[in-house]
Amino acid sequence: MHITSTEYQNQTINPEKLGIFGNYFSKLKVGSMLNNSGIVKTKGASPLELFTIVFNLAFIGKNFFQGVVRNKKVGVGKDAVYDFLNSPTYNWRRFTTLLSSRIYCIIKGLLDNSSEEVLIFDDSPYDRSRSKKVELLSRVYDHATHKYLKGFRLLTLGWSDGNSFLGIDFALLSSANKKNRYNEINPDIDKRTCGYQRRKEAITKSTMHLEPMVKKALKIGIRAKYLVMDSWFSMPSVISSLRKHIHIICMLKDHPKWFYEYNGKRLRLSDLYGKLKKKRGKAKVKASVLVRLPDGNKARVIFVPCDKKRGWLALLSTDITIADDEIIRLYGKRWDIEVFFKMCKQHLKLVKEIQIRNYDGLIGHTSLVMARYNILSLFQRKSVDQRSFGDLFRACNEELANITFLDALTRIMQLAMATLRKVHNLSEKIINSMLDLIMGEALVYFGLSNR
After folding, report:
1. Engineering a disulfide at 50: which of 84, 105, 402, 443 sits with its beta carbon 3.0 to 4.6 angstroms away?
2. Are 272 and 291 in contact (CB under 8 A)?
3. 232 vs 204, 238, 344, 377, CA distance in Å?
């Protein structure tokens, strides 16, 4: 899309309307990013003004109805906001990439050790159980509750250094199986638009998105050495494709069709564990072994104790040069994305702020919520890291305390709480209360709570 200079001039608003984030919007040049993403004014209020109005809703304690529909002070109507979010020509993925990469460059200047940086993949349910007419609404599986629900899966690629987390990219996935989709793509959508491409993306398998998203993150300058993933993405074929670009550290699943070669034999994970000599007592690592993956490459598999029935969890690293405790510590950073999902849903109003039926609107609003989190992450980092106030303090302060080995082990144990849902005599309410308690402590740990 061609953008004229007049359109660029429209991406400015009164700084007072930006609230406490005005300085950040200005320094990050959010208006320019909107322009560069094809998010430009056609009539009425500028996109930056509309973006700001919706952005601020989560921080003034109002939903869309309270903050826009009934609030005459905002000076725009609900139709203007819906048109802004629902446009299929707006490239929200480019905006998310531009914003996250600029924030990353700021935080990168505060880091002393790039080896602490990791990329993280995970997905989380986007629940629209009460909806009927949402475009591409589907029946999706929730790994946490082991139940199906109506909605989408939010596949997210994030970055972390153990202190800050940034959402780098996302795909809002429907179901690749047509039988599981309640509604299809709007037939009137222009197939040349960004919106149509995102719709096609929504009905492909999640594993098809992993490699392109990683390649794009590395291309924009993310210098992470490791990609951390849960067991849902630990298929040998996925590990093989991603290993071409970055080392993998992931939890493994004892799948009957996934094999690892050891001493010339192809073994499934549980059989591999049975062949190994275990360390006695309260060893942090029960066993560690080099295996060969189906593609011929070597990897290290370590087994750590846990309270699950089988008594162990398995982690894999394609980097065979690092120590076992380092694998555990780096994998522990995966917990950061769980905090991200919890924050986005509970505090940043990912699902409940505005009820949108148009798929473009879902993408636009999700992009805006991710922008909220990323700017908050920068805000939080600058508030606790003195070096962000000038080079004068750079030589006087040490790197923010990173998560320790024991912290990482604790996080792995917390992730295993998902197995509680399999205990039939525990109600969902009790399990959610336990998880909320853990998440509350995690929010305090990361400085994202006022407690």
Report:
1. 84
2. yes
3. 16, 10, 22, 27
Residue with tokens 């993306």: 201
Exposed, middle or buried by CB within 10 Å (0-12, 13-18, 19+), for 5?
exposed
Which position has the token pair 């629940």? 127
- Answer for the pair 16, 73: CB distance below 8 angstroms, yes or no: no
Residues near 391 by beta carbon (within 8 Å), at least 6 away in sequence: none
Q: What is the dihedral of CA 163, 166, 168, 169, to 10 degrees?
A: 120
d(CA 220, CA 228): 19
Helix axes 236-243, 207-219, angle to 10 degrees: 20
Six-digit token string for 138: 């589907």
Strand partners, 138: 151, 181
pTM exceeds 0.85 for this model: no
Write down the pLDDT at residue 375: 92
Cα–Cα distance for residue pair 31/39, rounded to 1 Å: 9
Domain extent listing, the chain = 5-223+336-386, 231-335
Q: For 183-226, what is each residue's pLDDT tens digit? A: 999 999 999 999 999 999 999 999 999 999 999 999 999 989 99
State residue 186's pLDDT score.
96
Say what the pLDDT of residue 390 is: 41
Strands 226-229, 118-127: pairing is parallel
Distant-in-sequence, close-in-space partners of 145: CB < 8 Å, separation ≥ 6: 421, 428
Q: What is the pLDDT of residues 80-111, one digit of tens each?
A: 889 999 999 999 999 999 999 999 999 988 87
